[in-house]
Automatic annotation (TrEMBL):
Pfam families: 7tm_4. Its main location: membrane. Keywords: G-protein coupled receptor, Membrane, Olfaction, Receptor, Sensory transduction, Transducer, Transmembrane, Transmembrane helix. Putative odorant or sperm cell receptor. SUPFAM superfamilies: Family A G protein-coupled receptor-like. GO terms for molecular function: G protein-coupled receptor activity; olfactory receptor activity. InterPro entries: GPCR_Rhodpsn (IPR000276), GPCR_Rhodpsn_7TM (IPR017452), Olfact_rcpt (IPR000725), OR51/52/56-like (IPR050402). This is G-protein coupled receptors family 1 profile domain-containing protein. The lineage of its organism: Eukaryota, Metazoa, Chordata, Craniata, Vertebrata.
Length: 319
């Protein structure tokens, strides 16, 4: 009877919604963060839409590298839009409640977009490898068919591999505590509230990180090692500099993307004493790259700069 009563009490306190508290430790003045976050979100949307318009209008940009950049722009806008409206609603209107289905859906979409961005970086690294190391075979290897197949493969890989994350989280029992010290529904933040064992959730999260993100990073690293090896064999310093210049913007974005992920993973171990740090980094990682990616490419890429000047009707000569 005692067990039946206990089970009844647990069922009685099954939560129907979560409360996203925002940034831990600064609840009283966290609304001041809404202005820079809103500006970053608007910048991300504006810059990525502009990139898509430029790529669509400029015939010279109808190349595999820019197609992947266009896909990256769509992914960046999707990622930022998945989290920013809810974060701004929390900061502006204290709209902290989120239903369980909505929370698990957000969790899935965030994971899907993050690993999709990682996958597109792999495609771009392979594109640069073929262009620099095998330039004569580039038109035969990196065809329109290759680009479409690579994109579809990454989309399917990421959408299917991330399904277990929200499914496993939804199977946990949330019996009493429903306040999440976060601005979004992160897997670890949500499942930490469960009353039963969440070991399987942590294991799959780790497995997902190592198999998808880890393999992506290894492929990117290998591509750039081969690129560097090929460039160092060039007799002309000018040719080597020109070859590397096409990779600069890509490397900047990759370093930022994976460095922040590694830092977030490390700071999670210090979340008890410094809970604000991983939460703030998590939010910034989902909004800064979408704003930063198109800007870096526009600044470092001559063709994109020309397209930008034409789109803005500016008569400026770019070097």
């Amino acid at each position: 009877m005692f067990q039946d009563l206990t089970h009844s009490n647990i069922s009685k306190f099954q939560v129907s919604e979560f409360i996203l508290m925002g940034f831990p430790g600064i609840h009283t003045w966290q609304h001041w963060l809404s202005l820079p976050l809103a500006l970053l979100y608007l910048l991300a949307l504006t810059a990525n839409i502009l990139i898509l318009i430029i790529i669509n209008q400029e015939a010279t940009l109808h190349q595999p590298m820019y197609f992947f950049l266009g896909v990256l722009a769509v992914v960046d806008m999707g990622l930022a839009t998945t989290i920013m409206p809810k974060i701004l609603a929390i900061l502006w209107f204290s709209a902290k409640a989120i239903s369980l289905p909505e929370c698990f859906a957000q969790m899935y979409v965030i994971h899907c977009f993050v690993v999709m961005e990682s996958g597109i970086f792999v495609c771009m690294a392979i594109d640069r490898y073929v262009a620099i190391c095998k330039p004569l075979r580039y038109p035969a290897i990196v065809t329109d068919s290759f680009v479409v197949k690579a994109t579809v493969f990454m989309a399917l890989r990421n959408s299917l591999a991330t399904i277990p994350v929200p499914v496993l989280a939804a199977q946990r029992h949330y019996c009493s505590q429903n306040q999440i010290e976060h601005c979004l529904c992160s897997n670890l933040g949500v499942t930490s509230l469960s009353c039963d064992d969440r070991t399987i959730n942590s294991i799959y999260q780790l497995l997902l990180a190592w198999t998808l993100m880890g393999s992506d990073l290894a492929l990117i690293f290998l591509s750039y090692v081969l690129i560097l090896h090929s460039v160092l064999k060039l007799n002309s310093a000018e040719a080597a500099s020109k070859a590397l210049s096409t990779c600069t913007s890509h490397l900047i974005l990759i370093l930022f993307f994976y460095t922040v992920i590694i830092v977030i993973s490390i700071t999670h171990s210090a979340a008890i004493t410094l809970p604000l740090v991983p939460v703030l980094l998590n939010v910034l990682h989902n909004v800064i790259p979408p704003a930063l990616n198109p800007i870096v490419y526009a600044l470092k890429n001559k063709e994109l700069r020309h397209g930008l000047y034409k789109a803005l009707k500016l008569n400026i000569k770019s070097n």
